[in-house]
């Protein structure tokens, strides 16, 4: 009977990159090999099969390619299958509006720094001052702290906009220092960051 001896494991690949899934079979008599996605061959899109169907290649993977893939093997005696899960990610990218130097007067009111980032899935921005994390606040009208909003600009990339508000009663010497905005994506160790220095003018 056929045996699947080596199947590509669960993986998270990069969006818009090629993805290769392999399925090695031992079988006597020889087995027919085919693939399904989410339980159906009709869900396979922008794929090619190589090496007598043992290799499935996805060209420039997109979100529709995320899912559960099964390798099936069948001969006149027996049928078997094994499954793997494919997820995709887009590496985060970050920048701070206004460049690397920001100038504040002591006592200056209504000041803030804005950080933009994108990635997939679910990018989140974290602020630090002098390498110490600043807690986030969900209220966009706060006197000081961080407010974030997320949006999707197309079918792939998700944006995050994070605004760091200084003390709205007037900036103090505690506001001066090195600020870092770090954007990360969910369930992955990938991060990107941008920095700016706030100085007294």
UniProtKB/TrEMBL annotation:
| Localization annotation | Membrane
Give the highest taxon in the source lineage: Eukaryota
Record-given protein name:
Hemicentin-1 isoform X1
Q: Which lineage ranks, top first, belong to the organism behind this chain? A: Eukaryota, Metazoa, Cnidaria, Anthozoa, Octocorallia
Which molecular function GO terms apply here?
cell adhesion molecule binding
What is the protein's species of origin? Paramuricea clavata (Red gorgonian)
Q: Mind telling me which InterPro entries this protein's record contains?
A: Cell_adhesion_signaling (IPR051275), Ig-like_dom (IPR007110), Ig-like_dom_sf (IPR036179), Ig-like_fold (IPR013783), Ig_sub (IPR003599), Ig_sub2 (IPR003598)
Q: Which residues form the signal peptide?
A: none
Membrane topology designation: Single-pass type I membrane protein
PANTHER family in the cross-refs: IRREGULAR CHIASM C-ROUGHEST PROTEIN-RELATED, NEPHRIN
Q: Which Gene3D superfamilies does this one have?
A: Immunoglobulins
């Amino acid at each position: 009977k056929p045996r699947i001896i080596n199947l590509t494991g669960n993986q998270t690949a990069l969006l818009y990159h090629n993805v290769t899934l392999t399925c090695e079979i031992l079988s006597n008599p020889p087995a027919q090999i085919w693939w399904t996605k989410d339980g159906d061959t009709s869900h396979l899109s922008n794929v090619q099969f190589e090496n007598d169907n043992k290799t499935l290649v996805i060209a420039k993977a997109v979100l529709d390619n995320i899912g559960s893939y099964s390798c099936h093997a069948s001969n006149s005696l027996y049928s078997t299958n094994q499954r793997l899960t494919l997820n995709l990610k887009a590496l985060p990218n970050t920048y701070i509006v206004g460049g690397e130097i920001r100038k504040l007067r002591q006592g200056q009111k209504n000041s803030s720094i804005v950080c933009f980032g994108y990635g997939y899935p679910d990018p989140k921005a974290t602020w630090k001052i002098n390498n110490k994390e600043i807690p986030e606040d969900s209220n966009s009208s706060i006197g000081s702290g961080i407010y974030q909003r997320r949006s999707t600009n197309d079918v792939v990339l998700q944006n995050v906009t994070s605004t760091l508000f200084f003390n709205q009663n007037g900036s103090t010497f505690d506001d001066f220092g090195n600020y870092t905005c770090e954007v990360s994506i969910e369930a992955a160790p990938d991060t990107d960051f941008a920095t700016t220095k706030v100085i007294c003018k």
